[in-house]
Specification:
The complex is a heterodimer of chains A (515) and B (401). Helix content of chain A is 37%, strand content 17%. Chain A contains 17 helices and 20 strands. The radius of gyration of chain A is 22 Å and the shape is globular. In chain B, strand 16 and strand 17 form a beta hairpin. Chain B folds into three domains: 150 residues, Probable tRNA modification gtpase trme, domain 1 (Gyrase A, domain 2), CATH 3.30.1360; 99 residues, Aminomethyltransferase beta-barrel domains (Alpha-Beta Plaits), CATH 3.30.70; 100 residues, Elongation Factor Tu (Ef-tu), domain 3, CATH 2.40.30. Classes of the chains: A alpha/beta (515), B alpha+beta (401).
Chain lengths: 515, 401
């Protein structure tokens, strides 16, 4: 039996695991996907949290899914449809002076800011495009003489060089710095600046004044910056992926949590399930986060110490909470019409507000006045809530995973704080709430099996990007242990529901068989 | 007892400790010169380095080993932990035995070398030249093991030389003559436990004595009492250095750069490049540096650490090494005139493929006479084994020399 014929096990049926499985199966491999939960989907699932009310339980907007994957796996044929795309981002102002951001055009601000936005958006798009072009490539290693690595580095250098002198200088100037300085340079309107800064810090342990926040904003924009709501919630994306993977021949076993990865004389030999079942395999591909995979499932003792230490130092402190509200009726936001409420609503009324919200996280506290990204998906998709009623899905920050006082004592107070904050923009919302759910990073860690509850399986920052993601020595999806591969968001190009890590990993695995 | 507590804000005031033997050292230290060896005061020479060297070869010398970095490793995973940390198969070091080993970075470059004492089932001591606790703790991730540095908690003396065994017998250590090289045994000493290992850094018959610091001075006194008629002398670090060069032993920071203190990648060494390939056991599935060392073995060494027998009697300190075709191929790291081997000897690093046993080389030696510098080119030959290797080193029981 050659390697090529042998079974490949994929751990985790999240979007990256499913994408990887689908591509491997299409390349002719026998693939088994093992999923701990009862349904596939990972952190891209739709779930009923109150009778009749369904929400995307973790990720709630689609903005980075790779178009190539969507086409190659024919996801539309497998039932993927958008309930709404091209969502406008609305920066909410407690006094009703909302700012509407639709790509380069912005409403509700002075002419000077409108013009500045045109230039800002054009630049950010160009820079984000450079990052976006890296998404579907295997990151090059540094210090090798491998032809493909050198060519890949040369392409990146060329992409930056072809920006031209002025733009290249600007790219190199801002790529590593903080969004606060950049926005202060360019804009006047506080609500606009607050809203734009939120895009740079959502899902991260960064404030607007933290370095790397510009990079996060670029990463977010790298898929084109179009926010969409899949019909049926985010679970529809993974449902389509699961269908495509099955059609390609992959087997998906749900309710099968992996207890550990088996190693035989420094080579992966299979996995053991929680119930004690042993599944032999020549290759194991894990879409779980790198630390859960390497320290948890494999065990640090099977790695060399320096590498294991690096994995232990990946920055992955989750600090985004999820809040779901079942609402008896349409919430009314001061100064916002009903159509506006269906857009992407941002609570981030100024840079200072956002920075102050972050300050708490540094000291192990949750924000006293949190920021939030809210959607009301039931406005576009009536499968999610009973007629006349609605669901609100919000990503709320900052809610650090390791809260000083512990989440058990703080849950109720934090949820109250969040609802109070929302009520400043939609005064009647508290009375409309039929049911409220808070998922802290601790809950997310437990329910979705993500170390630290970090959505992106590791902070998205320059020091954890490209060949440095998740750590040097595993930047090309292969881990140092022969037969063990990574394909999750912890690998390049990272988090957000993209699928690129899964596809890149599959290509690397298929490529390694040919060599 | 004196484990440094870094949470005490005045810890820096106590950075350099007197050794537990300090009062005795002070009494013997006629030159009144002290040097610093990591956290301790140490004596370079008590009276005269040459005299102390000869005590070590012809009678016995006592060297204060307390400053040597010592670690304790225990817990259920002690053996698997050490097997992942060190290059050799630690399972072969049975309780009551001592083994020499190196440990490497993931890149297969030597961090340090040291001795592993299997004190009793599942409990080990590792002695090293450099401080290693950071790396040892980093390596402990994923193991159920306790790793502590115990440098300050153990006082140690090396007793080296032909009359060392007789001295210990006179001290009343029953059966000490039956201890084989690299063996260790425990004795009762005034109500505390004295550990004696037949180990050393001189390539001669010799022992190392380990005791709690509270009993340090009584141990010193008993030892000198017992050895009074056997030529016992305190020995400083200069004499020890001469003894170890004769034995052909390498020293971290002198004969090779510890990998974690090295900035330039070509300045680190694999075990193969230090002549320590025999310490690397590839049958172990995992150890730090294994993958890199497999590749390094495939590629062959970049350098070789060689022992040189040089013509003449001018020590080749800091000399360049040339091939017979006058190409600069390396440099001397340690050198001396060896009174016991009656030879001009040196340890040197040369670029591979040079360094085969028997290969002829040329050494550029600078020497000074009454301030005037002179230079000579001396021919040299690569030799194998220790420069001085007396049979008593291995004798069990050793004769009463």
């Amino acid at each position: 039996m050659t390697d090529h014929d042998a079974r490949i096990i994929v751990i985790g049926a999240g979007h990256n695991g499913l994408v990887c499985a689908a591509y491997l199966a299409r390349a002719g491999h026998e693939v088994t996907v093992l999923e701990a939960a009862a349904e596939p989907g990972g952190a891209a699932v739709t779930r009923e949290f109150a009778p009749g009310f369904r929400v995307p339980a973790c990720a709630h907007l689609l903005y980075l899914l790779d178009d190539g994957i969507r086409k190659e796996l024919a996801l539309d044929k497998h039932g993927l449809r958008m309930a709404r795309s091209g969502l406008v981002s609305i920066g909410l102002d407690p006094d009703g002076g909302h700012v509407r951001i639709a790509g380069a055009s912005v409403g509700g601000v002075a002419d000077a800011d409108q013009e500045a936005m045109q230039a800002h958006h054009r630049r950010m798009r160009r820079f984000a495009h450079i990052i976006g072009r890296l998404h579907n490539r295997q990151p090059p290693r540094l210090g090798t003489t491998d032809r493909r690595d050198l060519a890949s580095l040369a392409r990146l250098a060329l992409d930056i060089r072809t920006l031209g002198r002025t733009e290249m200088r600007e790219f190199l100037r801002i790529a590593g710095i903080n969004i606060y300085d950049v926005l202060q340079e360019r804009f006047e309107n506080p609500v606009l600046k607050g809203a734009l800064s939120l895009d740079a810090v959502l899902g991260t342990f960064l404030g607007p004044r933290s370095n790397n926040s510009v990079f996060c904003a670029l990463h977010r924009l790298s898929g084109g910056g179009d926010y969409a709501l899949p019909a049926g919630g985010m679970g529809a994306v993974t449902a389509a992926l699961a269908s495509a993977a099955r059609e390609a021949g992959a087997e998906i076993r749900t309710g099968s949590p992996v207890a550990r990865i088996l190693v035989d004389h420094d080579r992966v030999s299979g996995v053991e399930l929680d119930d004690g079942e042993w599944l032999p395999a020549a290759k194991v591909v894990s879409s779980a986060d790198p630390r859960a995979t390497l320290h948890g499932l494999l065990g640090a003792r099977h790695l060399e110490a320096g590498f294991a230490h690096r994995v232990g130092n990946i920055r992955m402190r989750g600090c985004a909470a999820k809040v779901h509200l079942a609402l008896d009726g349409m919430p009314e936001f001061t100064g916002l019409d009903a159509a506006g409420a269906g857009e992407r609503l941002l609570i981030a009324p100024s840079l200072e507000y956002v920075e102050r919200a972050f300050n708490h996280a540094k000291y192990g506290e949750h924000s006293a006045a949190p920021v939030a990204e809210m959607t009301l998906p039931s406005l576009h998709d009536d499968s999610l809530a009973p007629a006349g009623q609605h669901v609100l899905s919000a990503v709320v920050q900052w809610a650090p995973r390791n809260l000083k006082q512990g989440w058990a004592d703080a849950r109720a107070a934090f949820l109250d704080t969040v609802i109070d904050t929302m009520a400043r923009y939609a005064p009647g919302i508290r009375e409309q709430i039929l049911h409220a759910e808070l998922l802290t990073p601790e809950d997310i860690e437990r329910q979705f099996r993500i170390t630290g509850g970090h959505w992106h399986h590791g902070e998205l920052s320059l020091d954890q990007f490209l060949m440095m993601r998740p750590v040097p020595g595993a930047g090309q999806y292969a881990t140092p242990v022969p037969g063990l591969w990574l394909c999750g968001a912890g690998s390049h190009p990272g988090g957000g529901v993209m699928g690129s890590a899964g596809r890149n990993a599959a290509r690397a695995i298929v490529g390694s068989n040919r060599e | 007892m004196r484990t440094v507590r870094f949470d005490r804000r005045d810890h820096y005031r106590h950075k350099v400790f007197p050794s537990p033997f300090h009062a005795r050292q002070q009494a013997h230290n006629e030159l009144k010169v002290w040097s610093r060896w990591f956290d301790y005061l140490s004596v370079p020479a008590y009276t005269c380095a040459q005299m102390e060297y000869f005590a070590g070869r012809n009678a016995c010398g006592v060297f204060d080993l307390t400053p040597m970095t010592k670690h304790r490793v225990s817990g259920p995973d002690a053996l698997p932990y050490l097997n992942r940390l060190l290059t050799r198969d630690v399972g072969k070091i049975r309780p009551g035995r001592v083994g020499y080993s190196v440990w490497c970075t993931d890149e297969g470059q030597v961090i340090d070398d040291g001795t592993v004492f299997h004190l009793r089932e599942g409990e080990y001591r590792i002695c090293s030249q450099e401080h290693q606790i950071d790396w040892f703790l980093i390596s402990a991730l994923g193991f159920d093991v306790e790793v502590v540095e115990e440098t300050h908690d153990v006082a140690a003396l090396a007793l080296q030389g032909p009359t060392s065994c007789a001295t210990l017998k006179r001290m009343g250590l029953d059966g000490i003559e039956n201890l084989t090289p690299f063996g260790l045994a425990h004795f009762d000493f005034q109500g505390t436990q004295l550990m004696v290992s037949r180990t050393g850094y001189t390539g001669d018959l010799g022992y190392e004595l380990w005791i709690d610091p509270g009993h340090a001075e009584p141990l010193w006194n008993r030892l000198f009492e017992a050895g009074r008629l056997l030529g016992i002398k305190p020995m400083g670090s200069e004499a020890l250095d001469l003894l170890r060069i004769e034995a052909g032993f390498i020293l971290a920071g002198v004969d090779f750069m510890p990998a974690q203190q090295t900035v330039r990648p070509t300045h680190t060494r694999t075990p193969f490049e230090l002549g320590l390939g025999w310490l690397v056991d590839f049958d172990k599935p995992v150890f730090n540096g294994r993958r890199a060392l497999l590749a390094a073995r495939e590629r062959g060494p970049r350098y070789r650490l060689v022992r040189l027998d040089i013509e003449g009697n001018k020590p080749a300190h800091h000399s360049y090494v040339y091939s017979t075709r006058n190409k600069n191929i390396g440099w001397v790291t340690s050198a001396m005139w060896s009174p016991s081997a009656k030879a001009n000897i040196a340890l040197a690093t040369v670029a591979a493929p040079h360094g085969e046993p028997g290969e002829e080389m040329r050494i550029e030696i600078y020497y000074q006479r009454e301030l005037k510098w002179s230079r000579m080119m001396a021919s040299a030959r690569v030799v194998e084994g220790a420069f001085y290797d007396p049979p008593r080193r291995r004798e069990t029981p050793p004769l009463d020399h």
